[in-house]
Structure formats: structure tokens, C-alpha cells
Amino acid sequence: MKFYAEMLDVLYMREFHAIAATLAKLAKDCIMILAQEQMHFIVNEEHCSTSSPLVWVSIASKDYFPEFQMTPARPEQEFIVLVMSAMHLSRALAVLRSGSSSSVHSCKLNLKQIQFPCISVIASVVSPSSSEPREVVHDVPVTVVPPSDWISYMLPKVPNTQIVLGIPSLRLLRSLIDKLKNISPSLIFHGSTAGELNLVAESDMATITTRFSRVLLHKPDQEQSEVGAEAEADVSCSVDTRKASAFFNALQLPNEEIMIGIDSERCICLQLDIRSNVVLHSILPAVCI
Predict the structure, then answer these.
(1) 163, 220, 236, 256: least surrounded by Cβ within 10 Å?
(2) Known Pfam families for this protein (predicted)?
(3) Over the stretch 95-153, which tens digit does the pLDDT of each residue have?
């Protein structure tokens, strides 16, 4: 069993750290699934507090890693599955946030067996006081999941949604939901094919509705959409406000647009396209009002 990957682009290294920092804010542990051309991180509800949502990130190896090698324990196996502390991984990658005092030339990830299995994060750093690079090494302990237990760590599937709306102001949405969590335990997402999204918070004292109009309407995949017969359709779903707030407050990525898919009375699917082949997903299950 072997794994080795190397990053050379500073922007990609910062994004990779931002992904790890986002996961660290959502859960104590995270799952890393390594495939031949993909790397996945999962924060599963079974492994975190009830106030945190299900989140997973899929990364195409060619986008971040010029060199990416994965050899499973046996030829017939497709993956290496690891469980690790999300906080430890985020701290190990914190050196990639290079500031004016130093610059990072490269970062290597290496699965090693020392006294315990670990992912070694090896960053090549150059400081202004010296032209010679130095290596900063952090060993993040991991638990190797045997194939017999992989069924408990399967990559989630993006649920079918009847409407997908693109919201261009992620910062505004985060601030709004953070305030609404103090008003109502549930939050209703109400979208329409006319390009409108309403967020509704209800309490005994008041009902607050925030309307986003002229938002970008994304078409769901043909096999996913079974409601496309109507010219204009309204879809709504109520979710736990704390889970929605936990997701938006955890985001450390600079993206401004987020896609919100609504599956009536079942779930809200949130999608952040970091790059064309680097995508963060979250599912907020429906709650009864």
C-alpha cells in the first residue's frame, strides 16, 4: 500500500488548505478516500455532532497534483480508505498559507508507516533570511480502514433535485442564515423556476422572508428531473437552521457563488465549484415543521 502526491502551485496549495480548514470546523474526524485519479474527503453525520451537516469534497488529482501515485494493498482493490483528525490535517497544512515572511515552493503528501500509519505533510519553505529551502514536516496519524468495512465509508451520491439555483453572494447568505438561526429552529428554502429564492424563518412572534430575485437558474440533469413538465414550478424544503448555519460558517474558501438544489420535502443540496473538477457538496435533510 503506497500513496504519494506533490503540489507545486501556490494557489492550489492554499485552496487545499482551505478545504481541510473547512472540514476541521465541521467535525473532529474526516475520511480520506484515495483512488487512482481522485481524492475524496468526507465529513459524515455518523462521525460528528448532530448540529453538523454531511459534507464531502471530490478532487481530481490532475487539478492539484502534477504527481499523484496510489498503489492499493492488493491489485484488485480500487481504493485506500483512511480516517484521520480533521484538525490535525488542517494544522499540518497551515504552513501552506504562505505570507510575506516565507514562501512555500512545494508540498508533498506521503503515506508512511513509522510507529503508526500516518500521512506525512512535507512542505518546502524558503524564508527571506535564507535562500536555502527547509523542510517542514508534520505526521498526521491515520487509521487504515480494511476493505471489509468500506461499505460504512462509501462516497455519498448527489441527490436528485427538482430545481437548482445559483446564488452569487455567498457572504450575504452566510450572514443572513447566521441571524435567522436565532429566530427559528427551521428554515424554509422556497425556489421557483422564475429565478427566485425565498428564505423563510417563522416564530410565534413573526415570519421573516428574504427574497433573492433574478438568480441564475441551473437545469438539473435530465435523469434527475421528473418535474420539468410545468413551465413554472415552485419547490420548497424546510431544514435545520443550525445545520445550515454550521455549513456556511465553516466555509474557508474564497468562492462567492453557491448552487442550491431543492428536492421538495426531502433535502437541500449545496454545491460549491472550487474548480471544474474540485467540488464541495453538502446535504441538509428535511425536517418536519
Answers:
(1) 256
(2) Hus1
(3) 988 654 568 899 999 999 999 999 999 999 987 777 788 899 999 999 999 999 999 88
* CB distance 193 to 233 below 8 Å: yes
Amino acid, res. 18: A
Question: Quick one: 91 exposed, middle or buried, by C-beta within 10 A (0-12, 13-18, 19+)?
Answer: middle
- 141-178 pLDDT, tens digit per residue, is 999 999 999 998 889 999 889 999 999 888 899 999 99
pLDDT beyond 80 at 233: no
Taking the mean position of all CA atoms in its chain, how far away is CA 114?
Answer: 30
Please enumerate, as own/partner, the contacts of 222-225 that have beta carbons within 8 Å and a separation of 24 or more.
224/160, 224/161, 225/160, 225/162
pLDDT band at 219; cut points 50, 70, 90: low
d(CA 14, CA 253): 9
Per the DSSP assignment, residues forming a β-bridge with 194 are none
- Give how far Cα 257 sits from Cα of 128, 168, 210, Å: 36, 4, 18
Q: What is the largest CA-CA distance in the chain?
A: 66
Element (H, E) at 92: helix 86-93
The domains of the chain, with CATH numbers, are: 2-153 (3.70.10.10), 163-285 (3.70.10.10)
Least Cα distance to 19 among 43, 52, 36, 37 occurs for 43
